[in-house]
Amino acid sequence: MNQNLYCALRAAFPADLARTAVECAAIEGAAGTPLFYTWRDLDRSSAMMANLLLSLDLPTDARVLAHTDKSVEALILYLAVLRAGLVYVPLNSAYQASELAYFIGNAEPAVVVCAPRNFGWLSKLAFRAGVQHVYTLGDDRSGSLLQRAAHHADTQTPVQRAVSDVASIIYTSGTTGRSKGAMLSHGNLLANAQVLKTLWGWRPEDEGGDVLIHALPLFHVHGLFVASHGALLNGSKMLWFAKFDARAVTARLPEATVFMGVPTLYGRLLAEPSFNAQACQNMRLFISGSAPLLAETFRQFSECSGHAILERYGMSETVMLTSNPYAPEQERVAGTVGFALPGVDLRVTPAGGAHIGAVEVRGPSVFQGYWRMPEQTAQDFTADGWFKTGDLGQLDVSGRLTLIGRSKDLIITGGYNVYPAEVEGYLNELPGVDESAVIGVPHADLGEAVVAVLVPRAGVSVDALACIATMKQRIAGFKVPKHIIMTDHLPRNAMGKVQKALLRQQHRALFAH
Ligand code: MLC
After folding, report:
1. What is the pTM of this model?
2. What structural domains does the chain harbor?
3. Each residue's pLDDT tens digit, 370-425
4. Ligand 1 site, residue 221, Cβ cutoff 6 A
5. Whose CA is nearest to atom 48 of ligand 1?
6. Cα of 208 to ligand 1 centre, how many Å?
7. Residue 440 C-alpha to ligand 1 middle, in angstroms?
8. Read out DSSP for 250-274?
9. Nearest alpha carbon, ligand 1 atom 10
């Protein structure tokens, strides 16, 4: 049997293909009228794109790298890559040239698809690295990808794939500063999507169906797999937002039943004056993940909307691992991430009692390893085959998991992971900088904000704002420090290691206002 993930998604499309699959919600004040895509549109357009990709005669493990703005066509491109049996490599559209140079060098894609505005520099980079095909795709249906696909047939049989064949490589930041590509197979993604479909009670059409508000980026596990697969595998309509906007989302909430977001989105909904229980009257489920949800946000949201947010836990290497319960008779507990999903084995080592330990997992959604990093892969699995998540947690007697912290030096800002070592590397290259330490500082909107403590060379004056401006030209904006503190030395322990905990403590009130 063909295990190509697209086959399972396609089988879930409604019988009436003329129904709306995706409605693009126009953001208030933005130009343009709403666009509607039927299920037939998704099927035919992805067939045309798949046929274009197949006409390039690529090897079966060829990578298609997408650095595009969010659009329904970008989702169709993902479906097309699945159908063609190739490997989809999505990248954050905020990444800049130096970051792209690394990803292209590491992934060695056969095809690059980029926003038309980036074609000049990105195509140069790609061609120099030996990429044969560079297409453009705009968020307004412009670009060479659609033009070229238009010449191809609108039917296509998905290429035969096995459960363990890689469907996508998702880059995750590494502790050493260099990103690692987590290889997720067709089987990994389908197993997770099927479990979540049942667990979160996606409703069949004859029970009223579901409508998902999709307002997350499309280049990460959360928006691409958890949200899109959820709706596609249930044949449910998506109300599509190119960008999260609290007012615009609230205005469409009465038509929706499911919403997924990072905690920042929940904080912004709470701050939106039009957001209230009335707007949520038809909502069935609010899901949060990608960053810790504050108990206070959970409480305020419950008071304001009448809904208990369901917090779940996952990561790029494993897709989703745990979830608070869906059933109303079981409590969703703020500050916990719930129970292991059916099929997921989860342990906390050292195990037993109320001890805090390293969270380790096994299961059908655990990835196939890091792309071309066998040593890193070996290091991140135990000898008996459990994946070391890098998170610290505590299991209660009922099996409910509470995450306590991280064994790795990671900042999560607005749902994006930032590794200090990478940012420090760029800061240390700035003129006049001797050394730097990057930390996460509590921030009401973003959860944590990236902050740098910087030591200028002796006798040199370094301007913090100029550093921030230069950094914005070099790396994605979400990694750039929101604030830089100048100092003449970094606190170190007896081993010479920078005391980041002390720095975090010293600067914890930086954004308290
Ligand atoms: C944008 N900016 C950020 C930021 N996002 N800064 C810090 N952290 C972030 N997350 C900066 C930009 O660089 C820019 O800076 C300014 O904010 C405005 O940019 P914007 O694009 O207009 O921002 P906004 O639309 O407000 O975006 C914020 C956000 C977005 C929270 C809506 O970041 C977002 O959609 N986050 C979701 C991330 C996500 O999907 N994570 C899932 C990972 S998967 P300047 O200075 O130029 O103005 C995963 C696994 C799992 O973790 O379990 O789910």
Report:
1. 0.97
2. 5-17+34-194 (3.40.50.12780), 336-406 (2.30.38.10), 410-506 (3.30.300.30)
3. 999 999 999 999 999 999 999 999 999 999 999 998 877 899 999 999 999 999 99
4. yes
5. 477
6. 33
7. 15
8. HHHGGG-SEEEE-HHHHHHHHT-TT
9. 414
